[in-house]
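[audit] Reproducing an earlier prediction to check determinism. Same input, same settings, fresh worker. If the tokens differ from the archived copy the diff job will pick it up downstream; this log only records the rerun itself.
[audit] input (204 residues):
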Amino acid sequence: MANIIVISNSPQATAAAGGLLMDAGHRVFAASSAKQALAIIEKSRPDIAFVYHFPPESDGRIIMETIKRKDHGLPVVFLSGTDDAETAILAAKAGAEDCIQGSELKKRLLLVANTILKLSGLQRENNELRDFISKNFIPQRQAVQPSLLEVGKQAAGEAEKRFIIRTLVECEWNKSKAAKALRIDYKTLFNKLREYGLNIIAKQ
């Protein structure tokens, strides 16, 4: 379940999008203005914002740009009351992750939401993994200047370790799949994980 905010000055539009999201098990917040939306975002920290645009009654672009300025990490999706290409271009220029036009709402709303949530989850895992590695595996500065050979070996080892981590993340920590992607056997991958201390991460 995710926290999702729907921003629109039309109760009917809010109910249409919010109903689909709630039926899928998400917690939905509704806002009818940028000011109200920012207050909800500050308090509830939603995972996605869906912003409706009904020209000329309301300008979703301005609301979306306001949200982007205040919260750079919040994915924003434009919901259009029309099916014209101009609205999609406007949304892209404003920095929207996607634009769902009127006739596509039922077909694409949940698909777009699930895609963004999955990407956000992977990004969060990558950030957590990067922090974990920087705290536990970044070598301390050596008192004695290492030789060129030692530097080369260390750089090669670090490059190999980063490549293994990236492959594991891409394979969603499925070690069998990762070994195949790395073109090595499972035992070799297991030994590499143990060598670099990554078996601790893989078990989490």
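[audit] rerun output stored. Observation attached for the diff report: DSSP finds nine helices and five strands in the chain.
[audit] end
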